[in-house]
Amino acid sequence: MLKFIRHNFDGMNGIEIYPIISLVLFFIVFVTMFIIVMNISKKRIDEVSRLPLEENTKSKENTHE
Amino acid sequence: MEKEQFYYDNKIVKMFLSATILWGIVGMLVGLIVAFLFVFPGFLEFAGSDNAISWLSFGRLRPLHTNAVIFAFVGNGIFTGIYYSTQRLLKTRMFNDNLSRIHFWGWQLIIVAAAITLPLGFTSTKEYAELEWPIDLAVVFIWVIFGINLIGTILKRRQRHIYVAIWFYIATLITIAVLYIFNNLELPVTAFKSYSVYAGVQDAMIQWWYGHNAVAFFLTTPVLGLMYYFVPKVANRPVYSYRLSIVHFWSLIFIYIWAGPHHLLYTALPGWAQNLGTVFSVMLIFPSWGGMINGLLTLRGAWDKVREDPVLKFFVVAITGYGMATFEGPMLSFKNVNAIGHYTDWIIGHVHIGTLAWNGFMIAGIIYWLATKLWKTKLYSKKLANIHFWIGTLGILFYAIPLYVAGFTQAFMWKQFNPDGTLVYGNFLETVTQIMPMYAMRAIGGTLYLAGFILLAYNIIKTAKAGSEVEDELAEAVPLKKISGKRIAGEPWHTWLERRTVLFSILTTVAILIGGMVEIIPLILVKSNVPTIASVKPYTPLELEGRDIYMREGCNNCHSQMIRPFRSEVARYGEYSKAGEFVYDHPFLWGSRRTGPDLHRIGGKYNDNWHFNHIMDPRSTSPGSIMPRYTWIIKDDLNASDIEAKMKGLVTLGVPYTDKEIAEAKQSIIAQANKIETSLRQDPEFVKNYGNSNIQNKEIVALIAYLQRLGTDIKANNNTALK
């Protein structure tokens, strides 16, 4: 897969650091996201994921017009 | 705190729902007509084959189909779902009823304006952004109205936590605004004509950054939002993993925006930009499949309901279609797969898996379910809905599979060489006639799908008639207590973020801007990305008029102007295309598929008479061709009255026309037109039939001038080195 990419960079100098920066950035962003997401409590998650199921309409219909 | 009573606005939801059904039928019908034009190219020539009707030609109807199904059908569909779910998820009525109405009627007016102007040939030619500048302005205005209404509703909510569906709506709102504005930056030269401010390679890059992300943020993210609301709602169980939905959201919107250049692999776009597109497109499979799995697994333990409930059946096929299309997308982004798929009908099959299955079935399911809620009654006929489901599914298969076969057939025939090094199928038409049965089957698939959708319309009308007229629905909820904007002790970070609407929107904007900026800014600022070629000169006034006719007729819908650096393409079309050849092309006309052959090196390949006869009746020069007859181009006088305004506009954009050239534009047109007329007279047949019809004043001479110019700048000076 990398054969598609590598040849483009053959002629450039001093760019070795960029892939490493990219990798580190991606790693940090996704790991942080993962940690943040995992830290939400189970109770909270259950509560939130039930939001679409809540029915707050009154059973008595009203056209109010 | 005491509960407040308020009313949900159901009327606006009903209005959008009705518009979805109406435009769905219109958009699909135009699609079907276009599909039949492949099989019967002359079937719309009601006034006889000598009098082809301009506004019924393929090049003008195809953009009408794509715009109608994307912005009219899916657009109204997502607004239906957004207006219904936002009110309920936030426990409040929409922010402002007037804004809702302006949004609705404004959107419908834009659609009507598009339906009139596109067949009349007012087009910027940039795919899914064809509308001319006055309509673009209206789109931006209405989008802002929608934005104020959505954000206003979020701000006055009675529910602290903003559910994941709403995040997807926010991302849609922001990203479409950014994309639409930047891709449609154009300089108006007359009331209905503009030129893209970008040229050539840069224009191509911006267009496909837009084109890809219009799919991402108009056809995907809002529909994912709808999935996260309606699938749990209908199945009556919470989403499979709410945590996964958070990861899904952030990774999807971050990665999607980088993937645009995969539409330009092996073109004259700089290699680094192509590679970024490939890498991110491949990564995109993870968030996409995360979302698909989250949707499907929401139905875990409820598969018995799927058997009973047509709505859930539609959802299951829709989400499966999403999974298929988002698997195929990354695969097509590999350069070696793309080399096969690009410019072929495979791509058309691929997008229709996305639109017919994912968008169409998601919206159909939502419409069936909403009808029962909005009209407070049972569905008129569950049986009809089931029939719709089955013929719709068959329709999708009959649509997509023949086009996959057609795509591979085209690719392999285009690339086949004889042992002596010549092309086996040197005549492009051999590849067209070979796949005609596939085009016929595709039209049958489209017919089935449309038939299913008409059943939906009938079913919903019957349901509405039997139901009650409840426009507003009473609800009650506790208002929000004011709490600090800062994080409360123990409040998780993301939970806090979700109640900070503005901060959330800013972070979303940052996430979607990074990818686009990294790809686009260097391409515009770094000159070495587009090596200039000394022999490339601006078009003459007549060629420029010809180019505008080429655009008006939508020739770019079937003909590319971008020869990829493959042996098979160089052998067929000529020298591969260089970035520097397009520096005066406002907009670029590379096209995205080859129903007909590439035209970048058409200049000088045939004589003027060949072009004349070919435009008059393509089948006279190319037996078996499915190109429309363009008889009006031969009959209509060329209107070059705006040529000075056009040239001045292009000067503003950096095309080096001199004041003298602009002042003498009309004389130049007459001189070049007379030359072409003289050359046409060399054919006795032409003199016999058209000798007295003043062809030098007709549009055809401009078009011939343009076609004969195409790709010749570097042919003439083959030795001119790249600067």
What does this structure look like?
Helix content of chain A is 52%, strand content 0%. Chain A is mainly alpha-helical and 65 residues long. The C terminus of chain A is likely disordered. Chain B is an all-alpha fold and 723 residues long. Chain B is built from 30 helices and four strands. In chain B, strands 1-4 form a two-stranded antiparallel sheet. A two-stranded antiparallel sheet of chain B has the order 2-3. In chain B, α22 packs across α29. The longest helix of chain B is centred in the middle third of the chain and has 34 residues. The interface between A and B is large, with 35 and 51 residues.
Which of globular, elongated, flat, extended, rod-shaped describes the shape of chain B? globular
Beta strand % of chain B:
under 5%
Q: Any idea what the radius of gyration of chain B is?
A: 27 Å
Q: What overall geometry of chain A do the principal axes of the alpha carbons give?
A: elongated
Order of helices and strands of chain A: HHH
Q: Write out the strand line-up for the largest beta sheet of chain B, numbering strands in chain order.
A: 1-4
Content of β-strand of chain A: under 5%
Low-confidence stretches of chain B: 719-723
* Total of helices of chain A: 3
Low-confidence stretches of chain A: 60-65
- Strand segment tally of chain B: 4
Work out the helix count of chain B: 30
Which secondary structure elements does this structure contain, and how are they paired or packed?
The complex is a heterodimer of chains A (65) and B (723).
Chain A: H1 3-6, H2 17-38, H3 42-49
Chain B: E1 4-9, H1 10-39, H2 58-90, H3 97-117, H4 133-155, H5 164-183, E2 186-190, E3 193-196, H6 200-218, H7 221-235, H8 242-256, H9 271-283, H10 285-297, H11 303-308, H12 310-333, H13 335-341, H14 346-374, H15 382-415, H16 428-434, H17 436-466, E4 472-477, H18 493-499, H19 501-525, H20 541-552, H21 567-573, H22 608-616, H23 618-621, H24 631-635, H25 643-652, H26 659-663, H27 665-680, H28 684-690, H29 699-709, H30 713-716
Antiparallel strand pairs in B: 1-4, 2-3
